[in-house]
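batch job 7 of whatever, protein = Cation diffusion facilitator CzcD-associated flavoprotein CzcO
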Amino acid sequence: MRFGTAMTHSVVIIGSGFGGIGMAIRLRQAGVRDVVILEKAGDLGGTWRDNTYPGAACDVPSHLYSFSFERKIDWSRRFPPQAEILEYLRHCAREHGVLEGIRFGTEVTEARFDEDAALWRISTTTGDLAARVLVSACGQLNRPELPPIEGRESFTGQAFHSSRWDHGTDLRGKRVAVIGTGASAVQIVPEIAEAAAELLLFQRSAPYVIDKPDRPYRDWERAALRAVPGLYALSRARIYALFEARALGFIRYPRLMGIMERGFRRHLAEQVADPALRAELVPGYRMGCKRILLSGDYYPALNRPNVRLVTDPIERVTPAGIRTAGGEHEADVIVYATGFRSTEFLSPMKIVGRDGRELNEAWRDGAQAHLGITVSGFPNLFLLYGPYTNLGHNSIIYMLESQFRYVLGCVEALRGAGLDWIDVRPDVQDAFTREMQERMRSTVWEAGCRSWYMTAGGKVVNNWPGYTFAYRRATRRPDPRHFRARRAAAR
């Protein structure tokens, strides 16, 4: 229908990664057909579209890093590579009829709740539209973080962020500087070390890197998955249980991480013979405080004669390279593997709720959302992969599917009860936030390190401090007592 000059839709979703595609599929399966996905890029896929750097792959096994309602039994490897994950998402969108509902090249600049009309009025780079329900599926890892290093713009060579990889830059025979040692870097370094004449890896703090038990699936394994009913589900359940067991060390008993730490040290000793280099690769914080990384070839790459680890603090970028306290390091190419602005969930969009309240202002001390999904003062707005829903130990797809069910319950409540809008009560949201912060104190994420899980003020707002099955139980259905509502007849 049209409301004024803008077309009004039942549901508008922002973003077409796993969250946006999966939510649209579940809505269609529930009979909600008028669903539009707004995507600022020219293709779907979210982080798996953006991160095309050499070696890009997932650190969650493929059987678990997929939707429960769209099985894929022919994964090529135990840990899926980027291109295969992206093609899986494209398949899901085509197979379930949501591809035609995606508006590519459409970036949302502002969404404002019209309380009288009970609509979200959405401004985009391609025009305006309106929605009864607005779902943000932007995720946490979509805005590249470039470090505030002096002189960055002065560099005369090629420079780019890992999530904006310049495939036109030939690294063969070049002096390549990689800044950062996070999840992207441990995949990039082994891939480009063979091509580069020299690779300089600038490390601010060493990560914990454990072995990645990756390998191609054998033909007989894929044949067995096709032939034996329930085998795929059993594999998925086994992986889930193994990963979920690790939550004890993350959320309840951080001292248990000492067991994994001993395994890390054995792995490091086996792969790095040089004691001086090995000492520089031992983190100075408790394992799990920052993201634990998986790789079987990162440490061997650091042993190569053309690879050098630089631990001196960076002072500035110069036209010819990077200057540290130890001197000048010349480079032809700089790769910023420096992560994302993960705590700025909906920025730079302007989101305005009831009484003109802006979301960025409401979140000035850190993002808050009940169950990571609903924000008080912003009716009929639902977040996917919002605050307190990231994981350190299991598959985010499992968390997303829990959120899909909760959002569907809210949409069905709106339709079934004839409501204009529902808005989570502020006391409910505040109680949830207090509980999260109280529980966070016993987790490994507050064991004394700085990480991308934290705001600038040092508050952990990204992670779920509990078991994933507990989150699923908490989101099994929306509780009407948690919401304020307005019936349609009151308009």
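notes: The chain has two domains: 8-143+341-487, 158-222+249-336.
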